[in-house]
Design a protein that fits this description.
It comes from Thermococcus barophilus (strain DSM 11836 / MP). The protein has 50 residues and is mainly alpha-helical. Helices cover 64% and strands 0% of the residues. It has one domain (2-42).
Length: 50
């Protein structure tokens, strides 16, 4: 999943990912995004003053 997220973060479109990795489906990409969202939702952020 991290690989899909890296591609998206580096500016690849969903269409480019699907063209270059035909074994993937659009649902796989959306699932990677949902997973990342879930992980970040559970993160606790602490602001550190300088």
């Amino acid at each position: 999943m991290y690989f899909i997220l890296e591609l998206l973060a580096n500016g690849w479109s969903i269409e480019e990912i699907l063209e270059n990795y035909p074994q993937l489906k659009k649902e796989d990409i959306y699932e990677a995004i949902r997973y990342a969202s879930m992980i970040l939702k559970e993160e606790e952020y602490i602001e550190i003053s300088s």
